[in-house]
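haha ok so turns out i had the wrong file open the whole time. this is the CORRECT one, sorry everyone. sequence first:
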Amino acid sequence: MRFRFGELLVLGVFLFAAAVTVIVVVPRSASSAQAGWTQTPYGPLGPADRDLLVRVRWAGLWEIPAGRWAQDRAGSEKVKDVGRHLVEDHTKLDAQVRELAAKLGVPLPDQPNPDQRGWLDEMAAARGPEFDRVFADRLRNAHGKVFTFVSAVRAGTRNSLVRDFAGQAVDVVMKHMTLLEGTGLVDYSALPTPTV
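then structure:
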């Protein structure tokens, strides 16, 4: 049985394509599953996607009480106004994140994390200008840290629901950073230095 050159070439290209498919596609899906990826009707859901939902839930668990306290404990009207925005925005985000997490099967926390509890303890003991300073510093610092993470998830998620939600969260975090900076109380020297 003799093969012509063209038939051998086609067979070689086919075998090469099959080998590339096995090497490139199969290991990715296998390693994705091992690295915590799951398939959903909205696209793959990865560890960073889950972490985003947890972090947004945690944000609401401490920022809503902090915003409420600002109404009674703040000395500045600007801080009271920022507190009102935090309560309003995080109440909406919290409802969205709980609905999204239920849809995607992601467990969420019910309590602030230890750092957040510490910040709430600081605010609980403060009144007037001292409350305003602690409120602005702790919240602006936290928003600055989460902004980078939320933006990265928005830029790289493969899940359409998480992408839409992360886009909303980026807008809220940016709004809150701007409002907090508008109080004139943010200590910029205490913020992390940007990296290149």
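Residues 28 and 34 are 10 Å apart (CA to CA).
again sry for the mixup
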